[in-house]
Structure formats: C-alpha cells, structure tokens
Design a protein that fits this description.
The complex is a heterodimer of chains A (427) and B (389). Chain A has 427 residues and is α/β, with parallel strands linked by helices. Chain A contains 18 helices and ten strands. The chains are: A alpha/beta (427), B alpha/beta (389). The complex binds iron/sulfur cluster (2 copies).
Chain lengths: 427, 389
Amino acid sequence: MSKEVVSKEKSMIIQKEMIASLSKELSNVKKTGKKVVYTFVPGNISELIRAFDMLPVYPEINALQSGMRKKSEKFIRDAEKMGHSEDVCTYVKCDVGMMINGNVGSGGDVVPPPDLLLLSYTGCFTFMKWFETLKRLYPEVPVAMLHTPYQAGHKITPEMTDYMVKQLKTEVIPKMEKVSGNKYDENKLKEILRKTSITEDLIMKIFDTTKNIPSPIDAYFAGVYYIGPINNGFRGTQEAVDYYQMLYKEILERVEKGLGPITPEGVMEEEKFRLVIEGPPNWTHFREFWKLFYDLGAVIVASSYTKVGGVYDNGFRVDPEKPLESLANYCMNCYTNLNLEQRVELLSDCITKYHADGFMVNSIKSCNSFSAGQLMIMRQLEEKLEIPVGFIESDLVDPRYFSYSNIKNRLESFFQMLEQRKLYSDK
Amino acid sequence: MEALKDILATCEEIAFDLNFTRAKEWKSQDDNRVIVGYMPIYFPREIIHAANGMTVGILGGGDRKMIIKGDAYYQSYICHIPRSIMELALDGHFDSFDGFIFPSICDVIRNLSGTFQILGKGKFVKYMDYPQNFVANIGGEFYENELQNVLDEVYKINHVKVTPEKLNHSIKLFNKNRELLRKIYDIRQEFPWRLTAADVYHIVRAGYMIPVEEHNQILEDVVYHISQDINEPLDNIRVVVMGAFCEQPPVGLIKTIELAGCYVVEDDFLLGARWIQKDIQEIKAGGTLLSSISYAFLNNSTYSSSLYDAEDPKERRLLELIKTRKVDGIIFAAPSFCDPALLDHPILQKACEVNNVRYISFLFSENTGQFKVIKEQIGTFSDSIKLWE
Ligand code: SF4
Ligand code: SF4
C-alpha cells in the first residue's frame, strides 16, 4: 500500500452529502408532509416515486447499514425471538428487528414509517414475503404490487413489457396518486428519466475502466459505494449526474497516472490478481473482508452484485420517450432477474473483457436468489473459459456466519493456485 | 371392485415409482403422446391432457434416492428437493420426458429451471411465471400467454392442436378428479379412522404419476370403500399440517404424526392436486381458449406461500379452514431452508396466538430418517390438547 494518507476524493464527499441530505429529508417528513415509499433495490423505480414528489426508503439498505454498524446481530436475534426461523433471509430479519427496536437508521434518526409499500417484485421471491411481513406491521399502509416477470426465456417479450406497463398504469400509479395527492405527470417522469439515462451511461463507463491494467478501481468493494447513489433513491436526479461525472473524472485521472484502486489503507500498489466476483459481500466484517483481498494484491474487476440494481453491460438504457416501458424493461433487466444462462454469459463476458485471472463466488447463506445455482454457474465458467474458480461462504448481515479463518484459508489456497498458473503460463 | 387394501398397496407403489413406469408405458402406446414433468406446486394439467400429453409430478427423491451427484449442485444451506431432483435427472430417470415445467414458487425452483436449461434436459424447459396480479385483462392475459407458450412447445413435438372441445373434455376429467379428492377429504373429516393420512397421501400422490382417467377410477373406488363403516376410531386430536407444499415430508413423518395421537384432516402436502377449489367452467362461446383455466387460477386458487396475498390474507383463510375442518390444532412442518414456508410461519402463528389456536412447529427434510424427537414433541402436543378439552 502507498504510505500516503488517504485523502477523501471529491466524489466521496459529494456522495456523503447526498446520502445525508436524503436522511435529513426523511427525518423532516412530518414537517414537510412528504410521503414515504418503501421499496427494493432490484426493480428500483425511484424515478416514479420522485415524479410524485415522494421519498424512497430501502429496507435492504437499512439492513446492510445495520450490518456495517454491527447492529444486525441483535436485530436478527430479536426477530428470531418473534418466531422468525434461523434458516431464512437475514435481511428480512434484520429489518424486522430494526423496526421493533424503534426503526433508527444509520444517521441516528428514526426512519419514518411508510405511506406506501411499493413491492417491486424483481428477481427475488423473498421480497414478496418481506412486504407481506411489513404489511402486518403497518396494516393501514397500502401495498402496490409490481410483478416483474422473470427472463426465463432469455429475453424480454412484448407481452412481458405489456403486463408490467398495465400494472404500472392500473395498480402502481393510481396508488401513488392517492397517497401523494399528486396527479401523474408523464412529462415530469420523462425529464427525470433523461437524467437516469445519462447516469446509466456514466456508470457503465466507470465500471468499464477496469479494462485498464492496473485497474483504477475495485469493482466490488469500492463498487458497492459507487452504486450507492443510484441504488439509494437518486436515479434520475441532477445530484446523481453530478456525482457520477465527478467520479468518472477522478477515475480517468487515476488511469492517466497508472494508479491502482484506492483501499481503506491507501492506494494498492501492486496488482497481482484480477478477479470477477459473483454474489453479495458480507457487510458485518466488510473492512476485514476487503482487506483479505487487497493484502494479497487482488483486485475485483467486475462483480455481479453491482448489477443488482440494473444491468447496463448489454446496452440497456432507459428511453425517456417511452417512460413506462422503460421502467418495466429496466426492472426485468436487473441481474437476479436474468436466467442462469444469461448470468453465465454476462459473467463470462466480464471475465474476458476485463482480463480476469480467476472467478470467485461469495455464497451467501441466507440468499437463495443468488446462491441457488451458483455452483452451476461456477462449473459452467470453469468449463467454458478454463479459468480457476474459487468459492467462499459468508452471510450478508448475520455475523454468526462469518468465519475469518475459513475465508482466509480458502482465499490463500485460491491465490496460490492463481500464482502457480501464472508462473506456468509465463514459462 | 378391488379390496381397499389392494388399492392402497397399488397407490403406494405407484406414488413412489421414481422410474415413472406407468407414464412411460402410457407414452409408448402412441407416437403422438408426450410426457411433461412439473415441479411443485401447481400446474393446470388439463391443457397438457388436451394436447395428448400427460403431466407427471416431480416431487423429489424423498428418502428413496441416495444423493451422490446432486450435492455438487447445491450448497448445504439450500433445501433438499433441488438436489434430489438433480440426482434423478442426472441418473436418467426423466429420460423419456419431453418437457419440464417449473412453476414460479421460489428462487430455488426458478434457478433450478436454469440448470435444466443449461443441461439441455428434455425438448423444452419452461419456467412458468404465475401472475401476482389477479385482474383478468392484466394478470389473466399474462397467464394465458404463459400457458399458450407451453402449448406451443408441446405442439412443436406432437403437432396436436388443442381445441375448445378437447380442452372442455379434459376440464371435465380434472373437475371430477378434484371433486373426488374433496369427497375423500370430507369423509375423512367426519371419519378420519377410515383411512390413514399416509394412505391419503399415497392415493393423492399416485395421481401425479398416472393418467387422470385411471386415477379417477381409483378415487371412485376409494370413495366407495370409505363410505362404509370401517375401522375403529381412536382417541386422537384433529390437526391440519401446513408448510410442506413443495419438498415433501417423508411418509414416515406423516405416519409419526398419526402415531403420536393426531388425525391429519387437512394438509398442504400435495397442494397442486387440490389447488383449484371449485369446478373449472367449460369454455364459453366467444371466450379465449384458456380463459376458463385462467379464471379459475385468478379466482378460485387456494391460498399459498407462493401467492401474493395482501387482498385476502392467508391467516384469514387458515382460520377459516380450521373452522371448516373443525381441527384442534395446527402442525407447522416446513422443509429446512424453505424461505416461502418459513417466512409465512410468524404471520400464521401470530394469528393462531390471537385466536387461541394451538400449534406446534418443526422442520424436516425429505430424507429425514429419525422421528423420535418429533414423535415426542407431537405426543406432548396432542396430550396437552386432550387434557385441555
Ligand atoms: S433473499 Fe437475497 S435478494 Fe432476496 S431479499 Fe434476501 S438478500 Fe435480498
Ligand atoms: S422447499 Fe421451499 S425453498 Fe425449497 S424449492 Fe421448495 S419452495 Fe423453494
């Protein structure tokens, strides 16, 4: 690591300010009268929420922040005491636990209760169960269900789009009108989507910079921060455009200087291994987890997790002139809504395009949406690309399932294998 | 008519025939016949029947299939059924199946469909996205389109076109099937000692493996037998078992529940067979081919962990079921790691607590072999209810 003290990049400061401003807005809703919509990151149609002047809240993000702040274990245990099984998604339990403990968010403010539960049911069945649970905790709050068909047949068909657009028109928009007291304004939505489209382009450019050697960014551990604004309610906002422009500029400067990624301990000096990772990270030991990689000179050049809130690799961008169709197609195009073959293709393209030396799965104990099928994906990539594959296990927010020594041992053997392979191919 | 004990023995044998012998024989009798395997929970079998096909339920290997290869596809914290289905697939049990249907019930089944696609199993693999919107011209239209896709796949194989007449004929047969199943459950509600829960399980499961015409005959005979005053009542409590709609409990577990002092008068073991709760109407003139099937799904489905329920909460429907079936308590039995079932349990259990309905819950896996602890738990549960009554 370079010894220089890590100074905060301007983009980091902007991002912090954005998140803080949203928290502030949320804590002021009693005064401002703004309505609050709970929803999910995959199938995150915050543009529509914003078009009604409402504010989004993401229970998944609350859960991951609770994990990072070491609060999740108590929340999970409290939910288990209420009858939730040890075997189910820990995000749900963490969220339920947070709620029964006063719903205090990461900034220390109470997260306001929802005025609408927007169940954008995309790429994960647990979302439905999650909001069925929340519906019981907030019985008076309406639920707007937006069922996103799965891309089982490898593509989005006109019937799938039509089904979603009809749901938007007859289920989601009327409920949003009722809750917000505002009429649906298509021009306003188009205007917001214009900014989304710029942001989507910028995000793709940013993640494409990992083509460089050394890679100027880590597309997983730092990548989760980069996708923070777009996933956390800023789709289609000017702040997001400014943030991503600034971030992209900073990254290009790094490319020009031939610098590697920034880690919590400084700039990574020697890039030894380039990896593509599948699966969400562990949040309870996020720093330790990251350190295991950068200490050994491993940089992540692409990750599936940064695509849960939208996949732009295949050219998809929202089309502001077709606003509802765009929202529908955006939802259907999120990573976990792709079928296994599509996931294999996408990961395979990333491995090739970003010159990865290896592929690694971080399998999350309580997330079936990602985990079921991962071993098949691994086999496929190994066979198809003859690339070394590695496998580690942890959980998102349940610290009981994070074993530092197990992960370290597995990573060390995996990196040894990569090292040997490199030596062999050099010869 | 065969004696009841012989019918039951036949059903048991058919129910667990992991080689699907009867279905394969049926197919071999006519070049135009197709076999379509479907995973839990529900699929409208009528449409395949009308296309000269037979749907066969793929319910996992249970405790009868040793898992050797399947474990290499699924982590230890994923339920058991996908690995036993993989084992069966890799060992060639489904070799003469033409297609596979994966109803949308959870992420595990969804991603299993992808594995079948990658492995190129059958002539088609269809992940059936059931609508979560229950409005006819929205969810209904989408559903009809999904079903039409299945029919198109079958047509590519056998060139049989489904006409309203053919479909109406199939609808009648399956209505009959559901009516007979309802009768068996209704008789058992009054006289649970006439047929054990394991027997009922075998009878219903046999229907997943043979042509509906044959199954209807079996059911008619069973109804006849259990309409007679047979067997002696025991001092058992009456329970409903909930949570086992996908991965099936081993029959040993069902037997254990009864041996521990409970008559199982309602369950969700093979829910798909009884999913549609009223007769499906014949296709009306002017209606689309699949409109009746779609109407039944949108309006007459049972409640389930895989359906969005905000408009008609499942706890309300469970409480209603408890009243109709006059049960003394509920056994929540879910497969380990089953998100859909397990995430419902706190909701359902809270409703039980509020309404003073006694319940017990435990986890199982399709290959669980030891029931001693469960038997003790259930025994205590049933004793406590008997003491209270
Ligand atoms: S199962 Fe996975 S994708 Fe679904 S809510 Fe839980 S963590 Fe998110
Ligand atoms: S047992 Fe549960 S989690 Fe497993 S495949 Fe069936 S529904 Fe899904």
